[in-house]
Automatic annotation (TrEMBL):
PANTHER family: FLAVODOXIN-RELATED PROTEIN WRBA-RELATED, FLAVOPROTEIN-LIKE PROTEIN YCP4-RELATED. Signal peptide: none annotated. One of its GO terms (cellular component) is membrane. One of its GO terms (molecular function) is FMN binding. Residues 5-188 form the Flavodoxin-like domain. InterPro entries: Flavodoxin/NO_synth, Flavoprotein-like_sf, Flavoprotein_WrbA-like, FMN_Rdtase-like_dom. Belongs to the SsuE family. Isf subfamily. This is Flavoprotein.
């Protein structure tokens, strides 16, 4: 198996899936061992229908499992923002990692984050910070994009020094958002290679 092994773990539909796929593409610039996995949906079918949630965008993406986290040398975790926080579905998945925590299964692994919000001030940064709380407790190494590429300074939509983001009031990612997402994936994979593949 090639090293590093990168897991792009996310919850959501639509543009968050597009972000996840671009993050994975960036990681593939460093390694072929990139796994894209989604967190299970916990909404009942009637809620999915009521809010017209289009689940087609994740139909071909495998559901994540806790062993995926152990398998990975580096992780990139994403969720749409829910009132400035990660979605409950992702939180529920991450809350099941107590056994990994007790044995240090994620300790020292690099991790990055991505999100999307429907408004400019809808919680991009606070959602990334909320997801990072999980990583702090596991002793993971947080790898942000910082200002590593010019698009982070010039974007007028999504993306910033905390992580890759999408301004979701438009459906498609713009070129800056794509570049930032791919940079984040590549950067986490580069750090994972340096830390875990010697």
């Amino acid at each position: 198996m090639e090293c590093p092994k990168i897991l792009v773990l996310f919850y959501g539909y639509g543009s968050i899936v597009d972000l996840a796929k671009n993050v994975a593409e960036g990681a593939r610039e460093i390694t072929r061992e990139v796994k894209l996995a989604r967190v299970r949906e916990y909404f009942p079918e009637e809620i999915i229908k009521k809010f017209r949630i289009n689940t087609d965008s994740v139909r071909d993406i495998p559901e994540a499992s806790l062993p995926d986290l152990e398998w990975a040398d580096g992780l990139i975790i994403g969720s749409p923002t829910r009132y400035g926080n990660m979605a409950g579905q992702l939180k529920l998945f991450l809350d099941q990692t107590a056994e990994l925590w007790s044995k240090g299964g994620l300790y020292g692994k690099p991790v990055g984050f991505f999100t999307e919000a429907s408004t400019m001030h809808g919680g991009h940064e606070s959602t990334i910070i909320a997801m990072a709380n999980f990583a702090y407790h596991h002793g993971m190494i947080i790898v942000p994009p910082g200002y590593g590429i010019k698009e982070i300074s010039t974007t007028t939509t999504g993306g910033g020094p905390y992580g890759a983001t999408h301004l979701g009031n438009k459906k498609e990612l713009d070129q800056n958002e794509i570049a930032i997402a791919r940079f984040l994936g590549k950067r986490v994979a580069e750090v994972a290679k340096k830390l875990r593949c010697t």
